[in-house]
């Protein structure tokens, strides 16, 4: 009987040691490196959630890639909503700082994206709350870069960083 209690005690100690090492490592990984998120809504159709409300895509969000605010035109990013800090939104980067973008429904027809900001839009125009509603977004609101669709299995794929052909820039910083 005493021997059996010793085994339980050793097992419990080993479990606690492993638990108290694994939890901080897992939390750090999810906070700093990558995590998964379910995409809701129609704003990114057809790239994400092409089936509408019947299904939700689950994407891999890479925190590490945006740690130095390194984003490119066409990247799909997760960011803190400028209107509701409790909410994260997922949009495509259309323009970078210094670019001049032709807007779609914004109060100004053309906008020059200020330093330290990006212009983001959903792929499903008219069904997206994006920069056309709230203007350029501070790079400080970037949360992660969506790199892959993980679920459903039939949609497993790498997300490409492409600008929709109708969203080409008027002028980019590189043109100047």
TrEMBL record:
Subunit details: Heterodimer of 2 subunits, IMMPL1 and IMMPL2.
Entry annotated with the keyword Transmembrane helix: yes
Major enzyme class: hydrolase
Residues at the catalytic site: 43, 91
Family matches, as InterPro entries: IMP2, LexA/Signal_pep-like_sf, Pept_S26A_signal_pept_1, Pept_S26A_signal_pept_1_CS, Peptidase_S26
Intracellular or extracellular location(s): Mitochondrion inner membrane
The organism of origin for this protein: Bos indicus x Bos taurus (Hybrid cattle)
Protein name: Mitochondrial inner membrane protease subunit
The family this protein is said to belong to: Belongs to the peptidase S26 family. IMP2 subfamily.
GO cellular component: mitochondrial inner membrane peptidase complex
Keywords from the named record: Hydrolase, Membrane, Mitochondrion, Mitochondrion inner membrane, Protease, Transmembrane, Transmembrane helix
């Amino acid at each position: 009987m005493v021997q059996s209690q010793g085994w339980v005690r050793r097992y419990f100690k080993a479990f606690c040691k492993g638990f108290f090492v694994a939890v901080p490592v897992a939390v750090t990984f999810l906070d700093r490196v990558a995590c998964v998120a379910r995409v809701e809504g129609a704003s990114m159709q057809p790239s994400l959630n092409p089936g509408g409300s019947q299904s939700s895509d689950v994407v891999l969000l890479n925190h590490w890639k945006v740690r130095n605010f390194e984003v490119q035109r066409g990247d799909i990013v997760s960011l803190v909503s400028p209107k509701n800090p409790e909410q994260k939104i997922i949009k495509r980067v259309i323009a970078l700082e210094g670019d001049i973008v032709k807007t779609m429904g914004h109060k100004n027809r053309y906008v020059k994206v200020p330093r330290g900001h990006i212009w983001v839009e959903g792929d499903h125009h008219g069904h997206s709350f994006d920069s056309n509603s709230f203007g350029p977004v501070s790079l400080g609101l970037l949360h992660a870069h969506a790199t892959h669709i993980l679920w459903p299995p039939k949609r497993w794929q790498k997300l490409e960083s492409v600008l929709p052909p109708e969203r080409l820039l008027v002028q980019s910083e590189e043109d100047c």
